[in-house]
Structure formats: C-alpha cells, structure tokens
Write a structure and sequence with these properties.
Blueprint (H helix, E strand, L loop, with lengths): L2 H66 L2 H9 L2 H7 L2 H6 L4 E5 L5 E4 L5 H19 L6 E7 L2 E9 L12 E7 L2 H11 L3 E5 L6 H13 L3 E5 L4 E9 L5 E10 L1 H53 L13 H21 L5 E5 L2 E5 L1 H7 L15 E3 L12 E6 L7 E12 L2 E10 L1 H15 L9 H14 L3 E8 L2 H8 L1 H18 L5 E6 L2 E7 L4 H15 L3 E3 L2 E3 L3 E6 L8 H18 L4 E3 L4 H20 L3 E10 L5 E12 L3 E3 L1 H11 L2 H23 L7 E4 L2 H5 L3 H12 L6 E6 H6 L1 H13 L3 E7 L16 E4 L1 H5 L5 H16 L3 E4 L5 H9 L4 E2 L8 E2 H4 L11
Parallel strand pairs: 21-22, 24-26, 26-27, 27-28, 28-29, 29-30, 30-31
Antiparallel strand pairs: 1-2, 1-5, 3-4, 4-5, 6-9, 7-8, 8-9, 10-11, 10-15, 12-13, 13-14, 14-15, 16-18, 16-21, 17-18, 19-20, 23-24, 23-31, 23-32, 24-25
Length: about 900
C-alpha cells in the first residue's frame, strides 16, 4: 500500500474517530441537558396539578369555615333546629357545594347530625366517620384543617373547621366536616385547568404493577415528583399525593408531548451535521497540505528510486533539493548507493548483473577482464563472455554454483566458478553472476588427478586407475581379458645399472608394450616392475594369445645400456574372460595368482588363471572364515598412533589402527587383511567394532584421568560403511552408550567415498555432523575427486597422503603440490594433518607451510591403549 493511501486512511480514520467521539460526547451532554429540562418541566406540571388539588382542598376549607362560623350553625349544635335542617341540610345543598358528605361532630368526635348523602361514596364516608370521628375532631384547631383521605378505594377531599359564633368566639360546639369524593370529574376539571392530560390513580392494592412500581420507588426514595418516558413522543410526570395521615393517597399522572426532547435531538443532529461538514473540510485541507509538502515528494522519491533500482546501475544517485527529512532520506539513499557501488566495484571477482541474458552492469574487475575500460558493455549478451559447463552442479547439490569459462576478447579462456542468483527487482527479474577464477584449483586438480591415476615415471595409468577401468568394463558388460606382466630379475638389473637407468628401462618397456596393443587396449604400471594389460573385446585365450605373445617378444628384445647388453625376461599371468568376475579386485587377485604360478615355473613363463581358479576361490574362502572367526573371538585389537599439534609437538589425539592378533602368525598389520575384508563385505563389521572399541577406550581414559584431560580419537570408515550400511547410526549409539562427548570423535574417510556417490556421502556426513562428530578426508590426493565437493560437504580436516611427504625432498613437484593443498585447506577453513612424517626436515618444512597437525614415526609409533595414553598424562610435550 502506498504512503498516500496509508496517509489518507490514517487521517480519515482519525477524523472519523474524532468526530465520532466529539459527537457522542457533545450529544450526550446536550441531550442530558434537554432531558433534565424535560424532567423539570413535567415535574413542574405534576407539582402544579398537586398544588391545584391542595388549593381546591383549601377552598373547600374556606367554604367550610363560612358554615361553621355561622351563628345559626352554632345554635343548631345546641337545639338541632328543624328549620335549620329543612332549609340547609338537604341533598340539594350537597349537590350545590359538590359534597359527598356534610357531618356535624361533637367536640368528642361523635356524629351530632349530618346532611343526607346523595351518593354511595358519601354513605361510605359516613360509615367510616362514625368509627373514627374522634381522630378527625382532634385535628381541628381554630383554623381548621383540609386534606385527603383514601377510604376503601375511594379518595376524598376533606376539610374540618370548629363550630364558633360568627365573631369567632366560642366555646366550640364541635367540628363541621365537608367531604368531597375525588373522581374522574375532578381529574377532568383539573386537566382543563392546567391544559394537560391528567389522571388520578388511587394508591390502593389494585393499582397496576407498573404504577405500583413507580409508587414504591417514590416512597422508598422519598421524592415527591418523578418522570418516565412512554415513547420518543410522550412522557409522563408523577406527583405523590399524601393523605392527612401522611400515607400515600394517590398518584397524579400528567402526560405531555416530548417537545423539549425532540428539540434536543434536532439540535444534536444539526450540530453533528455542521461538525461533519467542518471535519470533511478540515480533512481535505490536511490532505491537500500533506500532498503538497510530503506525499508528492515521497512519491517522486519512490519513483526515482524504482527507476534507479530497475535500471540495475548502481552509479546513479537521487536528486537533492531542500533541507527537510525527505532530502535527508535521499542523502542517506545516495550514501547507501555509494557504499553499494564501492562494495560491488571492489569485489575481487568479475561480477555481472543481467536482465534476460543481457548485461546491465559489470564491476571494475569484470570490465578489466573484458578490457572495456570504464565502459560497461551494457546490452550485450552475457553468454558471449561467460559460458557454463553442461554438467552443472554436483549430484545432490542444489546450490546455484556452476563451473564455466570467462572469455575475454582476444585473450585465453579463464576457468571460473560461477555463483548465480536471480532476484525480483520491481517488475524485472535480474540475475547476479559472480565468476571466480579457479585456474589454480584446476591446476591442483590436474596434479592430483595425475598423482592419483597415473604413474609419475612412465606416465601410464597406475594401479588405482587400472582397477577403475576394469570395474567400468565389468559394469558395461564388455568382453575383455587381463594380463599381469612382471619383469624377471629386474631388481638385479636395477642394482647393476642404477635407479635412473632402471626408470629409463621401465619407460622403454611401457613404450614397447603400448606399441603392440590396439588403440582401445590399456596398459598400466600396477606395482614396481609389474604391468597390467586390459585387452578389450577379446575374452578367450585363443583371441588374446597372439597379442600377448607379441608383447612378450617385444619386451624380451635385448637392450644396450652403458655398453652392456641386457636380455630382459618377462613372466605373465593371464585371466581370459575377465568380464565374468564380480569386481576389479577379484580380477586382479586371480591374475596375481596366475602370475605367481608363472614365476614359480621359471623365467619367461605364462600361466592362465583358469587352471587354479577353484583353488584360488578356496583360499579366499578360507581366509574369510579365519577373519570372521577373529572378529567373533576378539582377536582384533586397536593400536593408537598420536596426532600432535605442529607448533608445540603436544599430543592432541590419536588415530585408532586395527590389528589382527593371529593365534599362529602373531600380529598382522591391516594391509594384509583389510583388502580381504573389503572384498568379502566384513569391512563394515570391522569398522563398527573399531568405533565401539574406540568409544569405550575414550570412556576408560576419562575414568583414568579423573575428569582432567580428555582423549580424542579418529576412526577409519570404509566407503561401504558410509554409503551402504548403518554405520552412522551405530556409531551414534556407541557414543551414547559410552557417555562421551561427540567432539572427541573424528571419522576418517577416503576420497573414494566422494567419487562413488557424492549425494549419499553428503547425507551420511551430514548425519555425523548433526551428531557433533567431526569428519576428516584421509589419503587426500591419491584418490582424485573434484575439489568443488570440498566446499560443499561437511569436511573438517584434510589428511595429506604420506607418499607426498616421503617425496618432499626428491623434487620440487611434490613440495608445490603439498603447498597447494595446504593453501586450499586454509582458504576453505579446514584443518590439515601431514602424515608419515619420519624426519625432522619433513617436520620443519610442513610446520613452516602451515600444517595444523602432524602424524608419523617422528612423533610416535602405533601402540596399545595402555602405552599410548601415557603421553596425555604428563604436562610436558611428547618429544
């Protein structure tokens, strides 16, 4: 929602709230005043009606006194003169005076005489006065009395005066009572007098409930007057008329139109209308002023900012005018844009901002690479300068990172890692691309690839590459055969001509073998003076025999070295139909058995694997059974080799190394039984046993050290354990059962885990990371994997392969490679371990290059738990 709309809503809402509050408050106050006036008016009318009744009673008293101060009346009380009765005490007299009864009482209150009553009410009053005359007579003084009586549901206006001589002298002969019943006729006469409808309700038990409630309310509160609206048009006023005894005698009800109330409503409505008109005018005025002074400027600022944002050009700025907050805001935006421009321009990698593939902006580094100076190649296709590899991200990797090439005009292509992110800016979708130069990394990858897969002396594939190619051939279903060649007496020849000439001799042998083979065939240096051959599309011995015979002939051709003639000899183990094996390891094992058989027959012999294939299988099965038995009977033990901090030589932890304590052969190193365990699938059980034993030893050391130092242990896990089994869950369970901290455990894996299934490896390693367990990449550099995985997988530590350390001082190539690995690990925030350090010069060089930890015989040999942990107990360094 725009600021203009929000401002309009806020002001209108605030004004409505103000008007509503003022209207309600003022209307309530004004209406309360009008209602009070109305109540006062109706109460005054009720009081006026009551006063008129009281004056009627006083008038009746004056008439009464005219009669009681008459000498004839005075004489009548003595002699009861018949003439007085005949002339005065007739029904016509009562009708003339509108009386219901005229009663002469003695001073004691007894009825002396009475005029005959013409009405039923008069008879009822006479009946009551005969019993209560004394009470009434006692109220009459010289002035007499007047008031009202409620007798048996009838309301009477009563007056009494003493009977005296005309000159007002006495003694009093008694009391003369006048009684007039108050009914509809009196109410109608009174209504005509006050010009308002009037009703007189007798205060009796048969009074309606509503009027009874009003009477009870007036009686309880002590008020004499009360008003009650009947509707929005009519209101009633009530006055309480009490009798001579002080008890309620009647309710006088006055009904009147609510002219005052209606006038009040009209006044409030007019006030509200005028207030609304004023509020509307005031709102419009405020909005107009805000529009001129604030919202128009904000809208203009927003439009300019949107134009700058949608253009993607961070060099544009907001215009500055005035000295108010909007100008200050524009200045802050300009400052932010300047900071953003400096940030983008100073990024050390080429950065491109594109819209639908067309360049919108390029930073300084990008312009420098493209050689455009300060000019941005705006509008040109980004794909003409930056291309992506079709392979895209690694399997299981969803991050927007690709590898590609940056193509400067007229210059060599630069391998880059492209970080790409799209985002919505206004109505445009822009794409940010950052191209990071990975030339150094690519060179390191190539070096690692060559070191991992190729022999450095002959340039042939090595044993690892040979096994990979054999595995690929098996999976593809291709028909092939394998042969292993071993140079007879090569060690003797090497000693005779020297290592350098011996290497030349191996290169010559590799050249001769390659010269015989077809283009699709493979020759590899699998070990020392042993070569492996894969003959593609030839499986049977009849198909491979001519080629291998020619190879043997070429290799055994005499050589002349330093004036000496050398007659080489070669033994050969052949595995026809190698594609029938289940794995490359099995292929190589069978070929090696055949080679051993050939060498056992003498020099220059050839042996076929199929002759002893069953025997070889039996040997493998026997060894598997022994290894399984060793696992079950506890013949496996752990030795611990220290891992030290390079700067202090202080032991920081250990690597747990498994040993087989054979009952007959003694201690067997892992190199002799781990390959068998991997081939038979027992490696997962051995890995889990190693993890459980290491967790237990960590807990043992904690108990031994008494809560002081702690023992950190690295355990090895095979690719099969990480990718196929439940190793991670079992390790977590062992850790929990031992009650140890996960930071004391590190799992070491090889690069083969990453090559086989990077997505599955990432899942397992993330499981370890969530458990708090560190991950180390062992033998780094020997089993090549793309370095892009390192930054995306949860790897904490790199262990540089020992073969690099051993060759540090045999040539510059290995030193450059190790230095590159250490630099790469530092850039990725990883710790490093230099293994197989055996000499002080190796230690000093790796320390100088920044290795974090060291491991090797220079620091300590693998030892049983009880001996190894002694290095943790003293405070001094291990060496």
């Amino acid at each position: 929602m725009s600021i203009r709309k929000r401002t309009l809503i806020i002001i209108v809402f605030s004004m409505l709230l103000f008007l509503g509050g003022v209207s309600v408050l003022s209307g309530r106050l004004v209406m309360e005043s009008f209602i009070k006036l109305e109540e006062d008016s109706i109460s005054g009318n009720a009081a006026r009606a009551e006063n008129m009744l009281l004056r009627e009673a006083e008038g009746l008293l004056w008439v009464n006194r005219d009669w009681s101060f008459w000498d004839d009346t005075y004489a009548y009380m003595d002699d009861l003169n018949e003439d007085y009765v005949r002339i005065n005490l007739q029904p016509e007299t009562l009708e003339t005076l509108h009386l219901s009864a005229m009663v002469f009482l003695t001073p004691e209150g007894e009825v002396r005489s009475a005029a005959p009553s013409p009405s039923e009410g008069g008879a009822a009053f006479m009946e009551w006065i005969r019993s209560n005359g004394a009470i009434v007579a006692s109220r009459s003084g010289y002035e007499g009395f007047s008031g009202f009586f409620l007798l048996e549901g009838r309301l009477f206006m009563v007056s009494g005066a003493p009977i005296l001589r005309s000159d007002g002298t006495g003694p009093s002969k008694g009391v003369l009572l006048f009684a007039r019943e108050v009914g509809a006729e009196e109410a109608e006469s009174l209504s005509r007098s006050i010009l308002l409808p009037l009703k007189i309700h007798r205060a009796e038990s048969t009074l309606p409930a509503e009027l009874g409630g009003i009477l009870a309310s007036m009686e309880s509160t002590g008020v004499s007057f009360l008003s009650r609206p009947l509707s929005s048009e009519v209101i009633s006023g009530f006055s309480l008329l009490r009798d001579l005894r002080g008890t309620p005698a009647a309710l006088i009800e006055i009904t009147s139109r609510r002219d005052i109330f209606l006038q009040g409503k009209k006044t409030v409505l007019q006030f509200f209308l005028w207030l609304t008109l004023f509020g509307g005018f005031l709102t419009a005025l405020i909005l107009f002023l805000l529009k001129k002074t604030v919202t128009d400027r904000l809208e203009n600022t927003r439009a300019i900012l949107e134009r700058i944002a949608s253009s993607g050009r961070v060099g544009e700025r907001m215009p500055l005018s005035g000295s108010d907050e909007v100008t200050s805001l524009s200045g802050s935006i300009n400052s932010m844009l300047s900071s953003l421009e400096r940030l983008v321009e100073n990024i050390p990698d080429p950065l491109f901002l594109s819209d639908n593939g067309c360049i919108v902006h390029a930073n300084r580094e990008a312009r420098s690479v493209l050689k455009t100076g300060n000019h941005v190649p705006e509008g040109k296709r980004l794909s003409s300068f930056l291309t992506e590899e079709k392979s895209g991200p690694a399997p299981g990797d969803t991050s927007p990172i690709f590898e590609g090439k940056l193509i400067p005009p007229g210059g060599p292509e630069i391998p880059v890692e492209i970080h790409r992110q799209s985002f919505l800016l206004g109505e445009r979708t822009l794409t940010l691309s950052v191209a990071r130069d990975i030339s150094a990394r690519k060179e390191l990858e190539d070096s690692l690839r060559r070191m991992a897969y190729f022999d450095d002396k002959t340039g042939l594939p090595n044993r690892t590459r040979f096994l990979m190619l054999a595995d690929e051939a098996i999976r593809s279903g291709e028909t092939f055969a394998v042969a292993l060649l071993d140079m007879d007496r090569f060690r003797l020849i090497n000693d005779m001509i020297g290592p350098a000439k011996g290497d030349d001799l191996l290169r010559e042998f590799s050249r001769r073998i390659q010269g015989v083979l077809s283009p699709g065939d493979v020759v590899a240096r699998v070990e020392g003076d042993a070569f492996g051959i894969i003959l593609r599309k030839r499986g049977a011995w009849e198909e491979t025999s001519p080629v291998l015979t020619q190879v043997k002939k070429e290799v055994m051709t005499p050589l002349f070295v330093d004036g000496q003639t050398i007659f080489p000899s070669v033994s050969m183990g052949v595995l026809p139909e190698a594609h029938k094996c289940v794995s490359a390891t099995a292929v190589l094992a069978k070929a090696e058995v055949a080679l051993l058989r050939a060498k056992g027959r003498g020099l220059g012999q050839i042996a076929l694997s199929r002759e002893d294939e069953a025997a070889g299988s039996r040997d493998i099965l026997t060894a598997e059974g022994q290894l399984r038995k060793a696992l079950e009977q506890g013949e496996l033990i752990l030795h611990y080799q220290p891992i030290v901090r390079m700067g202090t030589k202080r032991t920081e932890g250990f690597e747990a190394l498994v040993r087989w304590r054979h009952p007959d052969r003694g201690l067997i190193p892992p190199g002799e039984f781990i390959p068998l365990a991997e081939e038979t699938g027992l490696i997962t059980e051995i890995d889990c046993w190693t993890a459980g034993q290491a967790c237990g030893d960590i807990a043992r050391f904690a108990a031994l050290a008494g809560g002081g130092k702690q023992m950190k242990v690295s355990v090895n896990a095979s690719a099969r354990s990480i990718l196929e089994g439940d190793y991670c869950a079992r390790l977590a369970a062992e850790k929990k059962a031992a009650g140890i901290s996960p930071r004391l455990l590190t799992v070491e894996i090889t690069e083969g885990v990453l090559i086989g299934s990077p997505a599955a490896a990432a899942t397992s390693l993330e499981t370890l990371r969530k458990e708090g367990i560190s991950v180390a990449l062992d033998d780094f550099g020997t089993g090549y994997s793309s370095l892009q995985y390192l930054s995306r997988l949860p790897i904490d530590r790199l262990k540089i392969d020992g073969s690099f350390i051993r060759r540090l001082f045999t040539g510059d190539g290995d030193r450059r490679l190790v230095k590159g690995i250490l630099t790469l690990a530092s850039d990725l925030g990883m710790e490093t371990v230099a293994v197989c350090i055996e000499r002080e010069d190796e230690y000093l060089w790796t320390l100088e290059q920044g290795a974090t930890y060291g491991q090797g015989y220079f620091f300590g040999h693998p030892r049983p738990f009880e001996e190894a942990v002694l290095s943790l107990l003293p405070e001094q360094p291990l060496i």
